[in-house]
Recover the amino acids of this structure.
């Protein structure tokens, strides 16, 4: 859950340049929407707490069944990747592609402000 991700990000004193994939969404109770909106995102909030982490927003726009087997469908599952770190972007796109996703560059980390609401289309 998003709240646990925030706590974990904050508990580590120094992430030492580790790539931290923010895969959570700030879901409101009852899946009624999101607790954060277009002025910030869960990924940006995690980045603000994860000192010296290279935060990447990815793996948050599809359901668990597609995460378990992204090749099960007739077409590749879309997987946007957003970060401010070019090397981390390249690595996470490569990881998602190897896993079987249609990984695409979604731009800077602030794009998570729109990727997180996009996840609601899958949820609903």
């Amino acid at each position: 859950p998003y709240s646990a991700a925030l706590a974990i990000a904050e508990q580590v004193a120094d992430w030492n340049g580790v790539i931290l994939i923010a895969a959570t969404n700030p879901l409101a109770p009852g899946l009624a929407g999101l607790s954060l909106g277009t002025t910030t995102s869960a990924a940006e909030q995690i980045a603000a707490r994860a000192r010296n982490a290279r935060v990447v927003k990815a793996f948050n726009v599809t359901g668990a069944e597609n995460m378990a087997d992204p090749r099960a469908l007739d077409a590749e599952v879309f997987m946007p990747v957003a970060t401010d770190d070019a090397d981390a972007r390249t690595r996470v796109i490569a990881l998602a592609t190897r896993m079987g996703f249609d990984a695409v560059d979604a731009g800077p980390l602030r794009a998570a402000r729109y990727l997180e609401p996009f996840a609601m289309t899958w949820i609903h």
Q: What stands out?
A: The first strand starts at residue 19 and ends at 22.
